[in-house]
Design brief:
The complex is a heterodimer of chains A (about 120) and B (about 110).
Chain A (H helix, E strand, L loop, with lengths): L4 E3 L2 E4 L5 E6 L6 E8 L3 E9 L2 E4 L8 E7 L2 E6 L8 E8 L10 E2 L3 E5 L1
Chain B lengths: L2 E3 L4 E5 L4 E3 L2 E3 L6 E7 L6 E7 L7 E2 L2 E6 L4 E6 L8 E8 L5 E3 L3 E6 L1
Parallel strand pairs in B: 2-12
Antiparallel strand pairs in B: 1-4, 3-9, 5-6, 5-10, 7-8, 8-9, 10-11, 10-12
The chains are: A mainly beta (about 120), B mainly beta (about 110).
């Protein structure tokens, strides 16, 4: 089985540009999570979806960030306009929903974003 | 508030020795799950081990074991017979009520020959 797939793996952009990160969860997983990892702030949950519906977006830093999940096999995280402080590794993760506390979250390889 | 605390920013251990990575958690909910993940320098997050709040036995997975002390709210990871490949960041995480995981700040483990 393919794991969680993220694209691109690396993104370098200039301040002010729009950035779109993509994620394909593991087939059959109904929960999807977007995380951001930086040295300063560690691993932060930005938003998560259950059955394509956003459940908790309290971690989204500001209106420049938006996330969508149009169907069970695809999600995007968009930053518009991007700023240098958005430079980080962005992880997507998925797990089955409703299986109790023990459901392991499977992480994608991450997208390393650099905003110049 | 629900929180995970990892007080050791870095740890060193000699190859073949055992090492304990500390994790304490805070929740008032009686039902929760505790996880450990490994993040090598390549960046991926690898699930290691899980412990449920009602599990009577400490979880074990190969060379990994979880020293679960519920009254002290601690869930320390023990790695036995350390290997060079164990050098990585290790994150403790907790799940309460919802699907989301609350992560600690991590401990960087360095295994030396």
């Amino acid at each position: 089985d393919a794991g969680v797939i993220q694209s691109p793996r690396h993104e370098v952009t200039e301040m002010g540009q729009e950035v779109t990160l993509r994620c394909k969860p593991i087939s059959g997983h109904n929960s999807l999570f977007w995380y951001r990892q930086t040295m300063m702030r560690g691993l932060e949950l930005l938003i998560y979806f259950n059955n394509n519906v956003p459940i908790d977006d309290s971690g989204m830093p500001e209106d420049r960030f938006s996330a969508k999940m149009p169907n069970a096999s695809f999600s995007t995280l968009k930053i518009q306009p991007s700023e240098p402080r958005d430079s980080a590794v962005y992880f997507c993760a998925s797990n089955p929903w409703g299986g109790g506390f023990s459901n392991e979250q499977f992480f994608g390889p991450g997208t390393r974003l650099t905003v110049l | 508030a629900q929180k995970i605390t990892q007080t050791q920013p870095g740890m060193f251990v000699q190859e073949k020795e055992a090492v304990t990575l500390d994790c304490t958690y805070d929740t008032s909910d009686p039902s929760y799950g505790l996880f450990w993940y490994k993040q090598p320098s390549s960046g991926e997050m690898i699930f290691l081990i899980y412990q449920g709040s009602y599990d009577q036995q400490n979880a074990t997975e190969g060379r990994y074991s979880l020293n679960f002390q519920k009254a002290r709210k601690s869930a320390n990871l023990v790695i036995s017979a350390s290997q060079l490949g164990d050098s990585a960041m290790y994150f403790c995480a907790m799940r309460v009520n919802t699907d989301k995981l609350i992560f600690g700040t991590g401990t960087r483990l360095q295994v030396f020959p």
